[in-house]
Amino acid sequence: METVLKRISSEWPRITIFHPIWKRGFLPVLLLMLWHWITASGYVKPVLFPSPESVLQAFIEMLGSGELLGHLSVSLIRVMEGFAIASFMGVGMGMAMGLFPLLNDMIEGILQMIRPIPPIAWLPLAILWFGIEEGSKIFIIALGAFFPIFLNVLNGIRQTDTKLVEIAQVLEVAKLKFTLKVVIPGSMPFIMTGLRVGLGYAWMCVVAAELSGGMRGMGYMLTDARSLAQTDKVVVGMMVIGLVGKAMDGILRLVEGRIVGWRELYTGE
């Protein structure tokens, strides 16, 4: 019996303070405890900073009534549509401008002028062009997600090792073959980074676009809760957006691992 217990204890995974579970869970637990202490101490009014208990209760009520899932599904569809357009345009234009210098010289100046303009500043024109419903919101999302994707793809193309280019020229390798075999695979880490950053911008832009009007979406839900001083619902909406965004980024990270699994990342160790 003693031998069996020793064997089980030796095979059981050891959880120390350096275990990934503790490293990733320590800060969230600490922040949750601090949040509870601040609200329980009475230093701030509940309308300004609701307690974790009231936020959890609001989450359960909104989930049970279908309000939360209804608004979330609408925003999620908008994000996916705008992100798909931004990905197609960003990857396409980034590759085209990276591979064809003449095209880059013709377009880069205009894009660099448009890039500093905040996506929300386009909202009045977007409403005039596409209406107050889906079209204008998807336009704002696509515009916000486009530039991070485009710039990362363009930089990825330009990061191609010049020695490989010289070798390809000496060996007279066709440009199409060199692009497919060397340039695109080498730029994939940049492309995946651009997609991940662009997805984050898409979520930020959908909330901003939904604040402008309409009766559906997470942005509308946040605005409605704020106007009614329902701070617990505002916090629920913010946390749900963060969790869903994190989950979608995790999916892209899995895809990135499949595509560029050959790349070794430096973790500081």
What does this 3D model show about the protein?
The protein has 269 residues and is mainly alpha-helical. The chain has eleven helices and no strands. The chain has helices at residues 2-11, 20-41, 52-65, 67-99, 101-114, 123-130, 134-158, 162-170, 175-210, 218-227, 231-259. Helix 4 (67-99) runs parallel beside helix 7 (134-158) and helix 6 (123-130) packs across helix 7 (134-158). The model has no long low-confidence stretch (mean pLDDT 81).
Characteristic key phrases:
11 helices, 269 residues, mainly alpha, 0% strand, single chain
- Which structural class do you get from the secondary structure elements? mainly alpha
Overall mean pLDDT stands at 81
Mind telling me the C-alpha Rg? 24 Å
**N-to-C order of helices and strands:** HHHHHHHHHHH
* Percentage of β-strand residues: under 5%
Number of strands: 0
What's this model, at a glance?
Helices cover 78% and strands 0% of the residues. It has 269 residues and is mainly alpha-helical.
Any chance you could write out the topology, listing elements then pairs?
Blueprint: H1 2-11, H2 20-41, H3 52-65, H4 67-99, H5 101-114, H6 123-130, H7 134-158, H8 162-170, H9 175-210, H10 218-227, H11 231-259
Helix pairs in contact: 3-11, 4-5, 4-7, 4-9, 4-10, 6-7, 7-9, 9-11, 10-11
